[in-house]
User: Fold these one by one.
Assistant:
Number 1:
Amino acid sequence: MLKLYHQLPVNEAGTDEAGRGCLAGPVTAAAVILPKGFTNTVLNDSKLLTHTKRDLLRPIIESSATAYAVAHIFPEKIEEINILNASILAMHKAIEQLKTSPKFIVVDGNRFKPFSDIPHECIIKGDGKYMNIAAASVLAKTYRDAYMEKLHEEFPMYNWKKNKGYPTKEHREAIRKYGITKYHRKSFKLLPNQLGLDL
């Protein structure tokens, strides 16, 4: 079972992102502050949960959280500042939108930039250790998936409903066949051999 907090329960926000390795769509981050005493035996790193479990957890997290927020950073901005900076910016924007200001921030991974003057700590594989980071990972993933499912309706040939913009063989074949859309990240290696892609 995951721990509830990293430090003492002083409005500690967990933050995580989804979609960093995708070829299309935004990078999405969430920030979550959980109340003292919150428990959930299913909650874990979103990558270890089924689609069904993530969708069941989302309303539980939203109704139980002291505060939560989600932010998307879109391909144009990703191209401008690079994916690492875009991921951190998404986390900053999510934290900024929290209705309760955190006293401490725990970040999944090993890279972050200070937000305001709030102390933070980066925790590798934090989404499998702390509930607030796991909750943020679930919200980031479910919100981003829902966004990609909407984009799928506009461009069904890439099957974003299924692959969510990740570099699957099918997604790459569709790029080879149909070219790219305004939702693709042009600076990413969209095909294993870029020679076949007319940018």
Number 2:
Amino acid sequence: MKTPLSFYYSDFALEAGVDEVGRGCLAGSVVAAAVIFPKDYKNPFLNDSKKLSKKDRQELDIEIRENALSFAIAEASPAEIDKINILNASFLAMQRAILQLNPVPEFLIIDGNRFKTDLEIPYECIIKGDSKYLSIAAASILAKNYRDDFMIKLAKEHPHYGWETNVGYPTKKHKIGIAEHGITEYHRKTFNSSLQLDLRFQK
């Protein structure tokens, strides 16, 4: 039986879990979400979005939105990723999500080992936090569902890259699509210039 995820890391009354998705993609924005749950909230089914089926993620998305004290989703665009690099763009998306929360959180728990912000809110970085804390798991689900849905919609506009299944990650079909059709306005140019060069030499 799966061990239930922990609730709050801190003793603060309003603690927000924060996570991002899409850092390793060749196309699309990096998306972050932040979630504050009430103190008495419990859900044995919440887990890291990568460990859940699409159906489970969609059902939990509704549950999270109905039960959270506050939640927010934000992104940093491919152009911003190219300008400030993917790590800083991830931090930017996280900060944008946090800024939308109401009430304002008193403490943040961030998935991963690094975070940079000019917000004056104390925080702790937690490696594999989406497998340890309810609010981070919830943030990972909201971010993934939002980003996946957006990339699937874009696949109808740009059908050559397999975004309906790879949602922008560097699969074989995506790489072949870039080699044969070039890149779109949704591609991250700093990621794709070296990839296109590699594919040309492989032909």
Number 3:
Amino acid sequence: MVNPIRSEIDFDAEGRHVGYLRLPHSVHRSAYGWIPIPAGSIRHGDGPTVVLMAGNHGDEYEGQILVSQLLREIEPQWVSGQLIFLPMANFPAAQAGSRTSPLDGGNLNRSFPGDPQGSPTAIIADYIEHTLLARAQYLIDFHSGGSSLLYDGANMLAIQPDDAGQTTRLRALLGAFGLPRAFLHAPNPLHSATAAWRQGAISIVTELGGAGTVQSRLLREARQGVLHLLGHIGALAGPLVPKAAPHETRFYRVSGASHYVYAYEHGVFEPLVELGQRVEAGQPAARIHFPETPLREPVTVAFDAAGEVVCQRAMAAVQRGDCLFHLAEPA
């Protein structure tokens, strides 16, 4: 089945081109309308194809700024190969400032490989995987904690390769990006990173702060890192490529469910530790308070494993099942 999205951009054309991916969307307000997904391409000569994506989740703003900035700043003559830009990949969600799409409730990063006959989010996922990633060797997907989570600084995630040679190459790429932390994890078939892997591309995902805010320091670090990485893989040359990565990257692992802490009550969340802090198994992590039942004592939630606190909930109000903390261990 052919995907119904039609691009205003000729992705085979040399030079810089900007326009919209048109997703047909017939509604009461607009019977013959389409959803405008912003996109850009800079193509010049031979070299790798890199997809630079943001707005996968609409309430994660750092990448939306950065991808748009890079599209404006990079001149075609500095490129070897092609850079494809998606600053608001799930446009309905990004326009609404929501993690998920208001049209269908779709979470784009839980929708791959998508469906060309499905809901708007599923159609977008199918187009990204089977049209854009199918022509790419690299995906850089910019995420943050969004509205509900806050990461400690700038972080990267990548799928753990199967063999030592691939692991060495991946670590070199993550080191060239140079954000402070890199988490290696197992593939999730619904994520963009695994969509890239299915198409033969290497993926690096960022987690930059969050809490519905934008931190200029993290934007600067991510910009320096991605430009240095593009230079490292031979996709970019010229004055924008920095001489060094922003940091020396430290590698971490996440040991499954034991590295996450969840609320089991409806109430108000009081964290008892700080981002970046080292914690031990059994250590109190948070208290859940119950102001609507003021004589009820708060419930204390503990960590199931040791690790470093790399992410915590940004909102005080919680319900059963909400994530409070995310830990990682140096690898």
Number 4:
Amino acid sequence: MSQKLNWIKEFDKPLAIAGPCSAESEKQMMEIAEQLNKDYVQVFRAGIWKPRTKPNCFEGVGAIGLNWLKKVKDEFGFKIATEVANASHVKLALEYDVDYLWIGARSTVNPFTVQEIAEALRDTKKVVLVKNPVNPDLELWMGAIERLQQQNIQNLGAIHRGFSTYKKTKYRNNPQWQIALDFMNKMPEIPMVCDPSHICGNREGIFDVSQQAYNFEYDGLMIESHHQPDEAWSDAKQQITPDRLLEILRKIELRKSDDEDAFYHSKINHLRNEIDETDQGILETIAQRMKIASQIGELKKEHNVAVFQPDRWKQIKDNSVQQGEKLGLSEEFIDKLVRAIHQESISHQNQIMNKENSN
């Protein structure tokens, strides 16, 4: 197994990068830094430039925030980190001796942007982290790392922040863990950091996602932390207080590769996660089917057609059994599954049929 790059071995605890989504003021930055526990958090992060989905939103305080970051470093001893999205950001970040620079998901998706940043960082000894692209594209993520390697940038890492999806799920950005695990298999020397804040989009799920990341032997976490989360200028819902962050970091169970059961834990959690993601997909597909069934119910009501159509039901059941057999599923299981789905569809259609009668 390839050894991880040396920069990740600097600390005696797993890497924890924490701080506000956005720098807002010097006072805000200093208060957060003072409240973060330095025994657990090694790197203070803050967004100086904030690429937003739509214009006329808060897009960061700009270069003045680098002064505040530098003051955090000087007064509290944290290493400091921020996102860079172009060559001018890189130049300013290096001038202010920012220790960790990360390339955001919106930048990773564009090879031209990554190339520009890579060339601006050529030969740097700083740690450069690459977030996964917004779309689920493993090769694009790996390609960004390779562009940086070609510019003789040695201290590299990846950040898994989840992937955008049109469908609404319990995540802001669907983790799609398998893509990150494939990245780790193909580039085992590159440390992997999880960003549960952006995966969840809410503070409630941060512990569970953080624990899941360590179950897969990730190397660290990047968690957004704010002394007054509800008052934050950006991404307020996903930020947590320094006290809550400390609770999470203390509670997490680590998986060590030298543990004789480490392979088992890693593998079974990998498989269980695949089941969880598959189950989520099944439920979303069934919900979509019910929406279609409801549309059929509206059509039947409009044309005064009975809800139950025996010939159609037989066709559905026969087709499902045939397809299930090809997929290695027993006829008994398919029969139970299809009956349950059909019954739910009928229930939806009956509700539509009875609307007028109940008024």
